[in-house]
Amino acid sequence: MTLSTELLHVHARYAVDPQAAKLEIWEVVVTATQICSVMFGVAGVGSSPSGWP
Question: Which domain holds residue 36?
């Protein structure tokens, strides 16, 4: 899975269900969010530089 693939899935699901009433769209959104979180975590984005409180 890649982020671009998951975002494509989000857009496709949202096109079919613009009210986001079905569970499937939320499952795809959660997966995309988890991928983003891992990418930022690995990149160290949001962490304090060493020596900072």
Answer: 3-41
Percentage of the chain modeled with pLDDT above 90: 26
**In this structure, which amino acid lies at residue 2?**
T
Q: Which tokens sit at 11?
A: 């857009």
pTM: 0.67
Closest CA to 36 of 12, 2, 8, 10: 2
Q: Tell me the C-alpha distance between 6 and 9, whole Å.
A: 5
d(CA 3, CA 53): 32
Name the domain count of the chain: 1
